[in-house]
């Protein structure tokens, strides 16, 4: 009896707080109450049996004993039946409560399903209990399925979170390695708590170990050059001001910081701010770069550029001086040639005049003596006529040469634009070059349309053809060769004229063509070549005539310089 009383109370105390099990507990208590009634009847039978054993009811002992045995057997069967059907839900409830307390992740083993035939056999007394147990079993299965589904969702979310964490760590590692590879230091300012962070690289740039310099703004501010401190503070204060929503700007500033050893470094600081929706700075992350060597290199390059520009200026001055020297030398050669050309007709005229003067004195003597014959007078007149004609012709030639020299010399010294007949002007140039050509076996011809008027610099043509002819004489022909040079002019359009200077010489090698117009380039250095002649030609064509010059091969050998220029400037 004691066991039957204590055991239900113990079981009831375990499940008193489990609300979904109320119906099942009521059924269990009903069975327990039935067992208690049977137990009380069994106790009465035991009392009767004891009295019979004492002899008080001996006549009825056997009957009571038999009745007691029957009752005990019924009670035992009832208890077994009760324990059989009550133990299953009790163990299920214990497992559910244990799973709920431990937040289990695996499903509760399914309770055995009762067949409808067995439920019907239990009778009307236990049918509601069994149906309630089945409903509870289904509800628990659904709850366990939902819990399992939530568990799976939680596990998946946890896996995704772990993956995101791993990716974030890899991204942070790549970012840190990339910044470390650039040699830049990292600094950060958190506006919420006004905290600063400076990486170890920020300190090592300045020569400090990590523990030797505090990661604070004050520690780094003390190392900024006094002349830069105010500028840095103002720039930072301006950067942290409220910006319009969605704006994006970069903090960038150069300043000097003192190295641990005392010298100054040039630091480039770049940063970007994270702002809230109202435009206030939440956090700033930036880098420090040591650009001292870059600035030194830039300064060295600037100094080198300045020195190079100065050298180029000096070279240009020297080139201009050499060009002037070349021009004066060409003018001197022209003077010498013209002097030789003028000297010849003047010499002939002088000889004729001397002869005429001697004959005139002879005739005068005969006249004074009164012995002049008519035949002698006629002979003198014939000689005088021929002599004066000869003198006039050669003096005219000399005057023409002097006029050509005057025109060319004036054009060379006075660079002015004027309109002139290109063909006639080129003939005057060739006339001035003939003395030089007479010293060689070479000849030059001119093919130019008549009446071709141009409005440009005449002096440019004089210098151009002087240098082209001299270049051909020096480089184009081999020794003993009879060189032929030709100037051919043609009208390309109403605004363009083409001039070709051609020779039948050895031509120009492909490797040399690209360098022909470079200053001081010559293949005859030490043999009379200065390397400036063709450079002067190029500059005159491009700068003065506003044209272009190129080199072509001529059929059968030789070279051809093609000049295209506008008819009027």
TrEMBL record:
- Kindly report, in one word, the top-level EC class recorded for this enzyme: transferase
The reply to whether Manganese figures as a keyword in the UniProt entry is no
Query: EC number(s) on record?
Result: 2.7.13.3
Any transmembrane segments, and where?
21-44, 72-96
Q: Which residues form a coiled coil?
A: 130-164, 291-321
PROSITE patterns on file: HIS_KIN, PAC, PAS
| Domain Histidine kinase: residue ranges | 337-569
Sorted alphabetically, which keywords does the UniProt record give?
A: Coiled coil, Kinase, Membrane, Phosphoprotein, Transferase, Transmembrane, Transmembrane helix
Q: Which SMART domains match?
A: HATPase_c, PAC, PAS
GO terms for molecular function, please?
phosphorelay sensor kinase activity
**Reactions this protein catalyses:** ATP + protein L-histidine = ADP + protein N-phospho-L-histidine
Organism superkingdom: Bacteria
The PAC domain extends over 251-303
Q: Which residues form the PAS domain?
A: 171-243
InterPro entries in alphabetical order: HATPase_C_sf, HATPase_dom, His_kinase_dom, HisK_dim/P_dom, HisK_dim/P_sf, PAC, PAS, PAS-assoc_C
Pfam families per the UniProt record, alphabetical: HATPase_c, PAS_3
Q: Which NCBIfam families match?
A: sensory_box (TIGR00229)
Q: Which PANTHER family match?
A: PTHR43065:SF47, SENSOR HISTIDINE KINASE
Q: What is this protein called?
A: histidine kinase
């Amino acid at each position: 009896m004691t066991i039957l009383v204590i055991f239900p109370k113990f079981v009831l105390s375990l499940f008193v707080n489990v609300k979904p099990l109320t119906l099942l507990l009521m059924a269990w208590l009903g069975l327990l109450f039935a067992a208690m009634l049977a137990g009380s009847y069994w106790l009465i039978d035991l009392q009767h049996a004891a009295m019979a054993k004492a002899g008080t009811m001996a006549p009825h002992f056997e009957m009571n004993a038999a009745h007691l045995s029957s009752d005990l057997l019924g009670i035992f069967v009832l208890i077994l039946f009760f324990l059989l059907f009550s133990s299953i839900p009790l163990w299920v409830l214990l497992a559910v409560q244990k799973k709920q307390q431990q937040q289990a992740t695996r499903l509760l083993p399914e309770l055995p399903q009762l067949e409808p035939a067995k439920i019907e056999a239990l009778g009307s007394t236990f049918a509601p209990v069994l149906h309630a147990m089945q409903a509870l079993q289904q509800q628990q299965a659904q709850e366990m399925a939902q819990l399992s589904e939530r568990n799976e969702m939680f596990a998946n979310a946890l896996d995704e979170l772990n993956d995101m964490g791993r990716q974030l760590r890899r991204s942070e590692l790549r970012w840190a390695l990339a910044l470390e590879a650039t040699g830049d230091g990292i600094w950060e300012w958190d506006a919420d708590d006004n905290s600063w962070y400076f990486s170890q690289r920020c300190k090592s740039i300045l020569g400090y170990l990590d523990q030797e310099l505090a990661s604070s703004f004050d520690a780094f501010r003390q190392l900024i050059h006094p002349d830069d401190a105010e500028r840095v503070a103002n720039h930072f204060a301006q950067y942290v001001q409220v910006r319009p929503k969605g704006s994006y700007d970069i903090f960038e500033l150069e300043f000097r910081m003192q190295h641990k050893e005392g010298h100054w470094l040039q630091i480039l600081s770049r940063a970007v701010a994270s702002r809230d929706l109202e435009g206030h700075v939440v956090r700033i992350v930036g880098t420090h770069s040591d650009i001292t060597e870059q600035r030194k290199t830039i300064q060295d390059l600037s100094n080198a550029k300045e020195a190079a520009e100065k050298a180029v200026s000096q070279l240009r001055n020297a080139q201009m001086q050499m060009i002037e020297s070349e021009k004066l030398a060409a003018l001197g050669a022209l003077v010498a040639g013209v002097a030789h050309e003028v000297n010849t007709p003047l010499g002939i005229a002088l000889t004729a005049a001397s002869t005429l003067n001697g004959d005139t004195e002879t005739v005068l003597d005969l006249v004074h003596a009164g012995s002049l014959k008519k035949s002698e007078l006629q002979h003198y007149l014939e000689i005088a006529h021929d002599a004066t004609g000869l003198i006039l012709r050669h003096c005219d030639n000399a005057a023409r040469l002097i006029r050509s020299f005057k025109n060319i010399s004036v054009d060379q010294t006075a660079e002015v634009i004027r309109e002139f007949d290109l063909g006639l002007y080129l003939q005057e140039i060739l006339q001035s070059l003939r003395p030089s050509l007479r010293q060689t076996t070479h000849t030059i011809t001119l093919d130019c349309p008549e009446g071709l008027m141009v409005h440009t610099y005449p002096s440019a043509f004089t210098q151009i053809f002087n240098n082209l002819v001299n270049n051909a004489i020096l480089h184009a022909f081999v020794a003993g060769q009879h060189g032929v040079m030709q100037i051919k002019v043609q009208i390309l359009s109403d605004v363009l004229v083409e001039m070709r200077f051609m020779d039948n010489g050895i031509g120009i090698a492909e490797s040399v063509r690209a360098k022909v117009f470079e200053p001081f380039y010559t293949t005859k250095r030490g043999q009379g070549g200065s390397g400036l002649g063709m450079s002067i030609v190029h500059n005159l064509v491009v700068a003065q005539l506003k044209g272009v010059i190129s080199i072509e091969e001529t059929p059968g050998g030789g070279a051809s310089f093609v000049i295209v220029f506008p008819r009027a400037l």
